[in-house]
TrEMBL record, chain A:
Residues 174-248 form the Cytochrome c domain. This is Cytochrome c class I. GO terms for molecular function: electron transfer activity; heme binding; metal ion binding; oxidoreductase activity. It comes from Effusibacillus lacus. It is a multi-pass membrane protein. One of its GO terms (cellular component) is membrane. Keywords: Electron transport, Heme, Iron, Membrane, Metal-binding, Transmembrane, Transmembrane helix, Transport. InterPro entries: Cyt_b/b6_C, Cyt_b/b6_C_sf, Cyt_c-like_dom, Cyt_c-like_dom_sf, Cytb/b6-like_sf, Cytochrome_c550/c551-like.
From TrEMBL, chain B:
This is Menaquinol:cytochrome c reductase cytochrome b subunit. Component of the menaquinol:cytochrome c reductase complex. GO terms for biological process: respiratory electron transport chain. SUPFAM superfamilies: Transmembrane di-heme cytochromes. It is a multi-pass membrane protein. It is found in: Cell membrane. One of its GO terms (cellular component) is plasma membrane. Its main location: membrane. The keyword Metal-binding applies. It comes from the Bacteria. The keyword Repeat does not apply.
Length: 250, 223
């Protein structure tokens, strides 16, 4: 045991006292002397931490929406290196990246004391252990950076959809019209039964934006990227377009 | 008065030997930042524990308002952020603290590794430390979902899929975590339970072991 203090305790004395003839070689009692010094370091960290919190308020993204598959997911930064690792492994072998590689890494880490059994402790005297750890840290840092860069690129290419502001007046015009039924069977799965949008955009107030003729064109020919053409044909399309053209909201 | 109270309790409970074992010992010179500035690297472990303590406290305060169901989780987090007195600070502490714990833990681990402090007789403490590392990462993974916003939902969807890719038992792990075929109400309650009951229990036991072993084995000598 490296801790010598147990032997030098004076029985019956309520607190550890250094014997008078013991040389002062820079050691000091844990409590309160050392703890106070550590607390000074701790309070510096806490002040810096609080300042960081005050100037970096946490944001809350939009509420979770399982139907919005266009959201580009990204894990918290400390999982990025794992996440990035998976990108380099082909689909069928993904278990290599999810189980085998992290498993080996964690096992090696846990077994480090048994892999490196020589007495030497100075980092320069055990170049394999030191070198391996430095390489691992650099590799993790590089993976994290790479993940970050690729995520930024993905965001730039495919910016997050802004939620379309729904018009204040969300009443559907002329709901008894037979075209409303056509809408229900052919369009509602994407645009929502109440025209509020789901995968596709909301169609409330679409009449403000397009004339019935333009809407008919869109129904017939589709509209990139998501809207297929020809879901509703002929006369039904015309009637549907007329009905949608009536959807003028504030 | 204070001394009398202490003596009275000590007579009945024998506090002195306990507190001696915990706090009454000499600390070697080479870990004292007051002697040598570079010794501050030995503070990383203590600082990790300090930040873990702030995580526990801020988490307890967040639990006063947080509701772990898919209808109210987002609203309650929004309420904490926008309405509760100092709520944004407490939430900020818990959010940023998660990253800080991981940074400090990582630095502590590197210090122990590079100074070879894991060598005999401290191997077991190193193994416990690696387990603490895994538990803390578990905190990060389960805590991320709780605000139930888009970032949280989709990051966890990816995480659950990764868990599902484990050969043979992946599907079972995924079901255990997610609670069904899709991420939903059960997932949130499960992650909440893991985050506030299972993992804290594991962490406290492991930290207890970690500190017990430091006292038993002492701090490794200077390089």
């Amino acid at each position: 045991m490296a801790d010598q203090s147990g032997k030098e305790r004076i029985p019956g004395v309520p607190r550890y006292r250094k014997p008078k003839d013991m040389p002062t070689n820079g050691t000091e009692p844990f409590f309160p002397n050392f703890l106070l010094k550590e607390w000074i370091v701790g309070s510096v960290l806490l002040v810096a931490f609080i300042l960081w919190i005050v100037f970096n308020p946490v944001e809350l993204a939009a509420v979770a929406d399982p139907s919005d598959t266009s959201f580009i997911p990204v894990p918290d930064w400390y999982f990025l290196f794992l996440y990035q690792l998976l990108k380099y492994i082909p689909g069928d072998y993904v278990w290599l990246g999810t189980v085998v590689i992290p498993g080996i890494a964690m096992t090696l880490l846990a077994l480090a004391p048994w892999l490196d059994r020589r007495k030497a402790r100075h980092p320069f005297k055990r170049p394999i252990a030191t070198g391996a750890m430095i390489v691992a840290v650099i590799f993790m840092a590089w993976l994290t950076r790479e993940a970050e860069v690729q995520h930024e690129a993905a965001l730039a290419k495919n910016p997050p959809k802004k939620k379309v502001e729904l018009p204040k007046d969300t009443a559907i015009v002329d709901q008894a019209d037979p075209a409303a039924k056509t809408f229900g069977t052919s369009c509602a799965s994407c645009h929502g039964a109440e025209l509020k949008g789901q995968l596709g955009p909301a169609l409330l107030g679409i009449g403000n934006k397009y004339t019935p003729e333009q809407i008919e064109e869109i129904i017939k020919n589709g509209k990139p990227p998501g809207m297929p053409g020809g879901l509703v044909k002929g006369d039904d399309a015309k009637k549907l377009a007329e009905w949608l053209g009536k959807q003028k909201q504030k | 008065m204070l001394k009398k109270t202490y003596d009275w309790i000590d007579e009945r409970l024998g506090v002195t030997p306990i507190w001696r074992d915990i706090a009454d010992h000499e600390v070697p010179a080479h870990v004292n930042p007051a002697n040598k500035m570079s010794a501050f690297i030995y503070c990383f472990g203590g600082l990790t524990f300090l930040i873990i303590t702030t995580q526990i406290i801020s988490g307890m305060f967040l639990a006063m308002y947080y509701v772990p169901d898919i209808i109210n989780a987002y609203k309650s987090v929004k309420y904490i952020t926008d309405e509760v007195l100092l709520g944004n600070i407490v939430r900020g502490m818990h959010f940023w603290g998660a990253s800080l714990v991981i940074i400090m833990m990582f630095l502590h681990m590197l210090r122990v590794f590079f100074t070879g402090s894991y060598k005999a007789p401290r191997e077991l403490n190193w193994v416990v430390g690696v387990l603490i590392f895994a538990v803390v990462m578990g905190f990060g993974f389960t805590g991320y979902l709780l605000p139930w916003d888009q970032k949280a939902y989709w990051a966890t969807a990816v995480g659950a899929k990764i868990a599902g890719s484990v050969p043979f038992i992946g599907k079972y792990i995924q079901t255990l975590l997610v609670g069904g075929p899709d991420l939903g109400a059960l997932t949130l309650t499960r992650f909440f339970a893991i985050h506030v009951f299972f993992l804290p229990a594991a962490l406290l036991v492991l930290l207890g072991l970690h500190f017990f072993m430091i006292r038993k084995q002492g701090i490794a000598g200077p390089l």
